[in-house]
Amino acid sequence: MLLMLPPPQEFTGDIPIVQKVAHAYKVWHSQLQHFPRLSRYTLGAKIDTLYCETLELILLAGYSSRQTKLVVVERASTKLDALKFFLQTAWEMKVIDTKRYGQLTSPLIEVGKMLGGWRKQLQSKTPPT
Questions:
Q1: 10: pLDDT strictly greater than 80
Q2: pLDDT tens digit sequence for 26-71
Q3: Could you tell me which residues come within 8 angstroms of residue 76 by beta carbon, excluding any fewer than 6 positions away?
Q4: What angle do CA 118, 111, 90 make, to 5 degrees?
Q5: What residue segments make up the domains of the chain, in order of their start?
Q6: 3 state DSSP class of 4
Q7: What CATH code is assigned to 16-124?
Q8: How far apart are CA 109 and CA 43, in angstroms?
């Protein structure tokens, strides 16, 4: 007898920033196939890894204890900055056209603002050591 399971639900947690990064990654993933072969497995793979690492850190921060949350948010912010740098590099090398670059970076700018606000909030609540 074949067991029929319901289709999986999207898991993005209840954290809006996770939903934003997950959506941005889906947009990126659809664009990766348009990368020239020479760049797809180098620069494209690097960008893909940074998207996944950023998403993982943000998800981890959402479920971290108060003591470790600030450190994880700061690491996520650093990964996001690296991601934006490599996307800009791909655009400068003309691997990504201007329209796609805008589609990819627009949500990341919002995520950066969200991370900055999160970090500021945590810093104000965390006593200096």
A1: no
A2: 999 999 998 999 999 999 999 999 999 999 999 999 999 988 999 9
A3: 54, 57, 58, 61, 115
A4: 140
A5: 16-124
A6: coil
A7: 1.20.1440.60
A8: 20
